[in-house]
Amino acid sequence: MAEPNTIDGPLFAVLLGALILATVGVLTVTVKMLLLIFAGVLFALFLNRLVRFVSGRTKLSYRVCYPIVVLLLAVLVASGVYYAGTQIVAKAHERGEQLRASTDRLIERIDQSQWLPDTSEIVSQLKTVVQDGDGILPQIMTVTGWIIWSLSAAAVILFIGLYVAYDPQLYGKGVLRCVASAQRERAEKTLQALQETLARWIGGRLMSMSIVGVATTAALWILGVPLPGMLGVIAALMTFVPNVGPLLATIPQVLLAFQVGSATVLYVLLFNVALQTLESYAITPVIMRYEVSLPPALTISAQLLMAVLLGPIGMVMAAPLTLLAIALVTEMRADPHDGPPQAGGSSRL
Question: For residue 346, what pLDDT is reported?
């Protein structure tokens, strides 16, 4: 009788390793998609609260205010993109020549420096990159890939947010139907508490983003840094990511400040340090009346972990996910016999 076919040890180990890697890859992609969906829900929550605010002030119905608010936001975003695009295109050649000249001066200073170690090989490579364009094509392909992914992610977040914010009760009831009837009341209370917590956090972030954006635009305009409006918008958007965002927002400011002068670079750095200090010790305590605070060490740890595992989308969503986890644990440990929070309008998300 013939013996059954068996897989030897090395082959089995290779197949098992391939299966594990494939599973991890699928899970990573799945989690990234879930994070995009969560970002869409955050956008829907912001849009829902904005529409409800307009509806309460104008006494119009939610369904009437919804298209008006969406249209105004679309016009605002399109105007900003158009302005930034025209500024970049109009000054692209000029800024490119200035950046090349600044790079040449930096290379010359490195080459003539006496206190640095031998940098002839580094200088040679820099000259090759600047003058001959070596390695430009792979960089272009990488940037193109990031642009395509970012546009796709933005489209997913946009459409999920628009659909959920248009009829929030539909999706809220769908979530509650997944819970047993005996636990549905407690689940509804928990869901409303999580929504309120996230809404307060978004409100606090928007206040911080507005203050940082206006202050950055004004300071860079006074210092004569090119494109102060666009840099202010970037600084405001990056402020959405606590701790890490303001540091990343400083990089383009410094790069453009190099075109003005070394002293301007120093002033830009000092301004960002002062702004972050002011935000931490003056602005944030006031905003904390409306925003839910997060332990800084816990937030930074979550951001580093999510960035390593899931990339930029993980780092961006780390803070609201951490807040959601804390709020969920708090609600689960609360007394289940407490009454549900008072509900607002009929179009609550």
Answer: 39
